[in-house]
Amino acid sequence: VKEGFIFIERSIVPIERLHKIAIEKGPIDRMFKLSKVIVTTAGGDVTIKFLEDEKSEFIADTLKNKINEIAIESRLEKQDNLL
Q1: Are strands 9-10 and 34-41 parallel, antiparallel or unpaired?
Q2: Which residues of 21-47 are buried (b: 16+ CB within 10 A; e: fewer)?
Q3: How far apart are CA 72 and CA 77, in angstroms?
Q4: Which of 6, 24, 80, 82 has the highest local Cβ count within 10 Å?
């Protein structure tokens, strides 16, 4: 996530550390058809702000699908190791 205009801050979170993905819209956000994606990790939250609704849905769905893929792969690896 890249933030800022004068001082730019970039946050990189490994996908394996993501715990929760949420989309939030306040009343003003809804007026302008904007929303934000909030990614929760063990270390805190990362927020991607000022996204068009479609873009936030796409980002949230993509992250959720990738997290599910990693979880399935991890379970399969554990099962293979037990056999």
Answers
A1: unpaired
A2: bebeeeeebeeeebbbbbbbeeeeebe
A3: 9
A4: 24
Residue 37: which domain range?
15-82
Is residue 1 domain-resident? no
Whether 7 is covered by a domain: the verdict is: no
Residue for token pair 């929303």: 35
Evaluate whether residue 54 is within a structural domain: yes
Nearest to 42 by CA among 13, 10, 12: 13
* pLDDT exceeds 80 at position 74: yes
Total number of domains constituting the chain = 1
pTM: 0.81
